[in-house]
């Protein structure tokens, strides 16, 4: 009898230890990074990296980079930045767009690529979270096999859950003004995420997030606008002739994608258009899309980043969970994903009704998401213009043009047309 009691106690202790071990596997991790391989000296800003588990069993481990504002983190806004793709790492935002570091564009010689400080970082005035999402992107991973593919609407819910948990562990930022930002494909996910957060703020069991608005750069919004306006954009940029443009307009009547197979005349001109533009770099028509030729190519930094992020010393410094992923890739092009938001225009309208401001900016050399399409879907909202087209200045130079709209006398929507494409606009 005594032996049975001892056995039962030991069995209970073993079970308890097993449960403690499993719970440890679910504990979110975070660490302060003071030095990064490739950067000379201590980092001139405060960087935190870590994982937040989301899902019923926290099976999805989302990896993030958090950088405190270099000005006044107690009061400055908190911005969550989502990179496009889907499946492109948050390192894209951190090192190519609006972060405080960039790759040093030296010729690769087999050693670890170098990092340098930037002067244009948004962390000068705001704290920023760069998030690897959806699962399988960057350093984010799943602890179990996923049976449901990530999706646009599903990611909005996961990102909201991530924020709830992240702010629960960083309560000193819970009262800061909060914004969601992103570019490219995130133009579909960000407005949905804003709506999800807004709905969550109305539910009694959720911790309210001090959501103020959102910002989007060259955002994919609706193919009716984004895809069809590639033809007028190509004409304005002198990529196609006047004659071809007029023929396309006459035969296709503004519909250049999903052309009916029997519309042979339109298809003939679309094929000619594709032949003339298929070697143009979509994200920036003046750049070469080659990846490894010379450091002068914009895409050269993608190769350097791949070497950097796959270095063991870098992974150790970032506190990456060992064996969580294999080789790091900047963009996982084959990521399993369900594209279930065809247009984010209704989300923009709902967010306006709920009182959230938005800033939409566009570079003028992106044919993938042309500024003409962005202007068109903004016009479709029928907002009133309160500040019409005027120069947007950096010191004494015109860097672009801005137009301001309002809705129900309480929401501002800013549209910036960047005459000279800025570094942080360039992306996937």
From TrEMBL:
SUPFAM superfamilies: alpha/beta-Hydrolases. Residues 1-29 form the signal peptide. Keywords: Carboxypeptidase, Disulfide bond, Glycoprotein, Hydrolase, Protease, Secreted, Signal. GO terms for cellular component: extracellular region. GO terms for molecular function: serine-type carboxypeptidase activity; sinapoyltransferase activity. The keyword rRNA-binding does not apply. The keyword Ribosomal protein does not apply. GO terms for biological process: proteolysis; secondary metabolic process. Probable carboxypeptidase. This is Serine carboxypeptidase-like 4. It comes from Arabidopsis thaliana (Mouse-ear cress).
